[in-house]
What does this fold into?
Amino acid sequence: MQVSIPELIIGAKSGQLVSFPTDTVPALASLPDRADLIFTAKGRSLDKPLILMGATLEDLLPFVAGTEAEIAVWQSVAEQYFPGALTLVLPASDRLPHSMNPLNPTSIGIRVPNHPLARKILAATTPLATTSANRSGEPALTNLEEINTKFPEVLVPNSSELVSSPQGAGIPSTVAKWTGAGWQILRQGEVQYELLMPSSRVVNP
It folds into this structure.
């Protein structure tokens, strides 16, 4: 359903599914404690956790837990690549709703998109559970009109409000997981792992 940005924000805060553009592919999003709506809408397996997306790193830090030294490392990487196409998989705090990662609620992927409209929405809603907008197993949809057709129950911005909004690159984010001693690249995306951390080990890129 096409709505204005203020209506989309109100809908998201009330627990509805929403979609909006990002710097990679459009996001399908909900409040973290309503993440089950995303799994149901996509037909997504519970062993595929969602990403917590926020307007700033400071908004996301309460959802992760680590030592002072670990947090300093995470902040250093985030300062270099946030906002951007990098997802950091970190130990989760007890504030994270179980529904975000049902089979392993001890970890969570966090990201700050490099897209002004996405950050405007996220600043108003606070962090949201997100994933790509598509049925599970199908390619990510890159056009909000297609999303409106495939997911008529999802709130999407009116096309008139996207005239000056940049298009996403269409390439998924790089996913880097903290191991306690370094990083593993779980998915190679726009951010190249050689540039991220030369000592990183690639796992199923």
